[in-house]
Write a structure and sequence with these properties.
Layout lengths: L51 H4 L8 E4 L4 E4 H10 L6 H13 L16 E4 L4 H12 L4 E5 L2 H8 L4 E4 L18 E4 L4 E4 L8 H5 L6 E4 L3 H20 L5 E4 L11 E3 L10 E7 L9 E8 L7 E6 L13 E7 L4 E7 L8 E7 L5 E7 L4 E4 L2 E2 L13 E7 L14 E13 L8 E4 L19 H4 L7 H15 L3 E6 L1 E3 L7 E4 L7 E3 H11 L8 E7 L21 H4 L20
Parallel strand pairs: 3-4, 3-6, 4-5, 6-22, 22-23, 23-27, 24-26
Antiparallel strand pairs: 1-2, 7-8, 9-21, 10-13, 11-12, 12-21, 13-20, 14-17, 14-21, 15-16, 15-20, 16-18, 18-19, 25-27
Helix pairs in contact: 4-10, 7-9
């Protein structure tokens, strides 16, 4: 039996030969002093150990057990305390199963299974004029699409019977269960309050297609406040965990009450008879900015065939869903040693840990990024090829370790016995850079213009002139935009001018500051939204867009000579951060 693969070997180290006060031995392996031991029951002693010379060593107190192999005191009290803190010992049946497996296991010959990723794009408002065109564009690009719609029959009739569909209404938060959005990392939101002619429309909605410039409008259905503002609150709440935050998700740190989110405990080689000892502490002024920081410190020893220390969180009450992110980033002050980060996705005590080693630079604060795709499934220091792929949506615990061993019998080249310290000020999930938009929103030009000082309303589009008559439609659209900008989600806000049924292809004008008027085709807006999803230049930008074709001139294309596809990145690169048009309000927002 290979000691490094035994069932008790949490880190590639072998279990001790233990005696209890009743004279029963409880574990085994061949020690370096050639003492033989076996798994024995009561009064069954191995011939090489059980002799009169050893009887004195069986007289043990209830607080201490002697580990014969290394002749070092083993603290059974600390062992029991560890088990109690982490909710109990391993399942005995699993221990036996592990022993049998380890006897026949061979070294890994294949790479572990890769983590699954999702490219599904959610389109909300998918049965509207812009939304259904967004679905078409995404499908033509071969991207998987899921849609959110209120009316199942209408959605399937318009988008196909096999459309991946969520039935929900942004105005009703209880219909937007976050579990429906699991795995979705990108959203194009084309939800909008419905505006229609007071006198009604033709069956094929000709008046709607012309735009409100050509009819007297009124709100149809839920109010602008319900759709554009409260609906945005509900939608962001439902998808926020799925799409992620630009600054990442802080898991451990000293902002707010995040420190209390984790309960750290020591998990050292005492669990298999060793004498190494570590602890988690808080240093009130230990960070690089003089603020509080966490500290993983201790003393590591190879006595009793040990050689590792670690601190591990108690299992989270609710699993952390980090599926929106690409990895975990630690801010640490290095000591020149190599450590391990272990992430667990099971509530069981002794199970696979998804593991990555990282090196540190002595005396320097550094950021260590560990991509989820680099994590190795490890069980007792052996790679598990048959392990399921890492599931970032179900994280139950996190562990930091300093060990003599790497994986599959390899040694840590920086290991040294003695004291060590690893201050760490934060642990957070991160998005890969360059970050691209995760939430693209179709808003409207004119949202900042109602009651803008000095604005001649007679020269403005009908929606601006009739803002109050239409339930403060533009005011609530602006409030909805503000929710997006404040959410922390990587976003792009597209403000089209008057929408038409004309084809895409006309020359375009992109502007910022909310001053332009004009028209643009719904098809063109859909193309812009899909292009924005892939553009780092579009992140955090708000802009208006129109075609160069005047209202008085229809835009048509020759099917035999269509216009070339646009490179929207050319436009995105010219956009500036922080320009929304609210600057012109001079602190006097429109009244509702």
């Amino acid at each position: 039996m290979n000691c490094s693969s035994s069932a008790f070997s949490c880190c590639g180290v072998s279990p001790p030969v233990l005696a209890n006060p009743r004279g029963q031995f409880t574990a085994s392996c061949l020690t370096r002093t050639n003492q033989k031991a076996h798994f024995l029951g009561s009064k069954q002693f191995p011939r090489g150990i059980h002799n009169p010379a050893n009887r004195a060593s069986l007289r043990l107190s209830q607080r201490e057990v002697i580990a014969f192999a290394g002749k070092q005191s083993w603290d059974i009290g600390r062992f029991a305390k560890t088990l109690f803190f982490f909710n109990g010992p391993p399942n005995p049946l699993k221990v036996v199963e592990s022993i049998l497996t380890s006897l026949t296991a061979s070294a890994p010959t294949e790479a572990p299974k890769k983590m699954e990723t999702s490219d599904v794009v959610l389109v909300t408002g998918a049965t509207g004029g812009v939304g259904r065109r967004v679905v078409d564009v995404l499908r033509k690009k071969g991207l998987p699409v899921r849609v959110l719609a209120r009316n199942e029959e209408k959605a399937r009739k318009m988008l196909g019977p096999d459309v991946d569909l969520i039935i929900g209404d942004v105005t009703k938060g209880d219909t937007l269960d976050p579990k429906y959005f699991k795995g979705i990392k990108k959203v194009i939101n084309a939800v909008s309050v419905i505006v229609g002619p007071k006198e009604g429309d033709t069956p094929d909605r000709q008046k709607y297609s012309q735009g409100i410039k050509f009819f007297e409008p009124e709100i149809k259905g839920p109010s602008p406040e319900m759709v554009e503002y409260l609906g945005m609150q509900n939608l962001l709440s439902a998808i926020k965990n799925s799409v992620g935050l630009s600054e990442g998700k802080l898991l451990f740190g000293f902002k707010g009450n995040l420190l209390g989110k984790f309960m750290w405990g020591a998990l050292d080689d005492v669990v298999m008879g060793g004498v190494s000892e570590s602890a988690f502490q808080i240093q009130p002024t230990g960070s690089e900015t003089g603020e509080a920081t966490g500290l993983f410190k201790g003393t590591v020893s190879t006595s009793n065939n040990g050689g590792f220390t670690s601190i591990r969180t108690k299992n989270f009450t609710v699993p952390e869903d980090l599926s929106a992110y690409d990895g975990v980033e630690l801010r640490v002050k290095g000591d020149g040693r190599r450590y391990k980060l272990i992430i667990r996705t099971s509530y069981e005590w002794d199970t696979i840990g998804y593991t990555a080693s990282f090196d540190t630079t002595k005396g320097e604060w550094q950021s260590v990024k560990i991509p989820f795709s680099s994590l190795i499934p490890v069980f007792r220091a052996r790679t598990k090829l048959d392990a399921p792929p890492f599931d970032a949506s179900y994280i139950t615990a996190i562990q930091l370790m300093f060990s003599k061993f790497e994986y599959d019998g390899k040694l840590n080249p920086t290991f040294a016995e003695g004291q060590f310290e690893l201050p760490f000020s934060s642990i957070k999930a991160y998005l890969n850079e360059p970050i691209t938009p995760r939430f693209v929103h179709v808003s409207s030009a004119g949202v900042t213009r109602p009651e803008r000082p000095g604005l001649d309303l007679s020269k403005q589009p009908p929606a601006v002139r009739m803002n109050k008559e239409l339930g403060s439609i533009l005011t609530y659209k602006l409030k909805g935009e503000d929710l997006i900008r404040e959410s922390g989600v990587p976003y792009t806000i597209v403000r089209p001018c008057a929408l038409t049924e004309e084809p895409a292809g006309a020359d375009l004008i992109f502007e910022q500051g909310d001053n332009i008027t004009g028209k643009i085709s719904r098809e063109e807006v859909a193309l812009i939204c899909v292009a924005a999803l892939e553009s780092p230049s579009a992140v955090g930008k708000t802009f208006e867009v129109k075609s160069t074709v005047p209202f008085s001139e229809p835009f048509v294309i020759d099917p035999s000579n269509p216009p070339p596809e646009k490179d929207y990145e050319v436009y995105f690169k010219e956009l500036k951060d922080g320009i929304t048009g609210k600057e012109a309000l001079e602190g006097t927002p429109a009244q509702v």
